[in-house]
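User: I'm new to structure prediction. If I give you an amino acid sequence, what do you actually give back? Let's try with this one:
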Amino acid sequence: MRRAAQGTAALLSGLVLIALAGCGAGGASSSQASLPSGEVQSVSEPFTAQEQLVQQGARLVVSYGCAACHLASAKHDVGPSFDHFAGHEVTLADGRRVLVDEHFLREALLHPEKYPIAGYDPEPMLTALRRLHLGSQPGHVAALVAFIEQIGPETS
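Assistant: Good question. You get back a string of structure tokens that encode the predicted 3D arrangement of the chain. For your 156 residues, that looks like this:
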């Protein structure tokens, strides 16, 4: 499980680099031209629906801008790091302690005003989620939840 999490983190890092560098804009012919003659470039596709969901979630984390506040290298005073989030208990602003599991993640993405985490300013998260209109995109919510759970701690 930890190996899968590391692979997902590497995938996310690659996606971030691609997004920042603007790679892929040159078209397929430029990447194929650099391959030795007769060699076919292979792309490893996810095999399961869950792996595809995690991959979609990784892309959304980058394109939605979540990475800026929630990746391990991000400033921890802005938002909790995803790699130390899923599978742990957090204290909400009202003092309740909750386990960050699939149910919590889904509800917090859909109704963030109900689940502010103690120690973090909720306004950036509320603003970002309002802009994304996730309530009308259940597939995106499922993908984000799958990704966040995947890079969380290994469970027993």
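You can read the tokens as a compact description of the fold. Here is one thing that stands out. The two ends are 10 Å apart (CA to CA).
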